[in-house]
Write a structure and sequence with these properties.
about 290 residues; globular; eight-stranded parallel β-barrel
Length: about 290
């Protein structure tokens, strides 16, 4: 039976292909089913992600059980990743329970403290065969009022951070943000190129992928991005489909209520996987 794999395995394959891996957040069984169906339809690997809020909602045993079942049904390797782990303790719990990849987000800490906690997680994770993603600079929320450029990743800091922590992947702040974008997305591609040039052997991660055009995402991939995170669009598609189902029917069978929502998320997931692999998104219509 296929097992969950470390994310570094997928990132290395993406690097070889000059592509990226779609990292898809899931929140319940329905969104997980949608992601696996999308990946199988496109014969692709994916990274399944949960935040701390989802862990609090579902609990680690249920998440691990669902992810392991997904791996058994997936036709290609997939990883289970902790997204935005805020503490060593949470990362350690996920490592011990069976996650194959964790993020330790020390981006709000001073540089030396970020390095220290990230290295602590790396030491524990690598001993268990688990991959680690760190973050340098800070990817904020679209609702933040501060100038995001103030927290962009500095290329020279990225080289030092990777050397001191030995992370498997580095999330960088180059202009994207979490949540719905209120205006045009502006990615600092020159900065991204400089970061990639400083740490060419380290896969780079782009957070805040929802709402970014395929053209911008593929330009980012061409400059070293190997993992792109998607969450907001997936939640929105699911929620809007459920609202529509409930507003247009008195049916109380949740299995029927959720079917359009699963299909809506699968559609979004397919498009993101295709973007990451370099395929033309217009082919989506012929596959749906």
């Amino acid at each position: 039976m296929p097992k969950l794999c470390p994310s570094r395995t997928l990132l290395n394959a993406a690097t070889k292909d000059g592509a990226a891996i779609a990292a898809l957040n899931f929140y319940n069984a329905e969104t997980l089913i949608a992601h696996v169906r999308a990946a199988n339809a496109l014969n692709a690997s994916i990274i399944l992600q949960t935040t701390e809020a989802t862990i609090d909602y579902l609990g680690l045993p249920i998440i691990l059980g669902m992810a392991q079942a997904a791996a058994a049904e997936s036709e290609n390797p997939i990883a289970l990743h902790l997204d935005h782990g805020r503490s060593y303790e949470l990362a350690a719990r996920c490592i011990d329970e069976g996650y194959t990849s964790v993020m330790i987000d020390g981006s709000k800490l001073p540089f030396n403290e970020n390095c220290a906690v990230t290295r602590q997680v790396v030491d524990r994770a690598h001993a268990a065969g688990v991959s680690v993603e760190g973050e340098l600079g800070h990817v904020g929320q679209n609702s933040d009022s501060a100038d995001p450029a103030e927290t962009f990743t500095r290329p020279e800091d990225a080289a030092r951070f990777v050397e001191e922590t030995n992370v498997d992947a580095l999330a960088v702040a180059v202009g994207t943000a979490h949540g719905f974008y209120k205006g045009a997305v502006r990615i600092d591609f020159q900065r991204l190129e400089e970061i990639s040039g400083k740490i060419p052997a380290t896969p780079l991660v782009l957070h805040g992928g929802s709402g970014v055009s395929p053209e911008l995402l593929q330009q980012a991939i061409a400059r070293g991005i190997r993992k792109i995170n998607f969450g907001t669009e997936l939640k929105n598609a699911f929620t809007q489909a459920v609202k529509n189902s409930l507003c247009n029917s008195d049916d109380i069978d949740l299995r029927r209520t959720f079917q359009p929502a699963i299909a809506a998320v699968e559609n979004i997931s397919r498009s993101k996987i295709m973007i990451c692999s370099g395929q033309r998104v217009e082919r989506q219509a012929s596959r749906s």
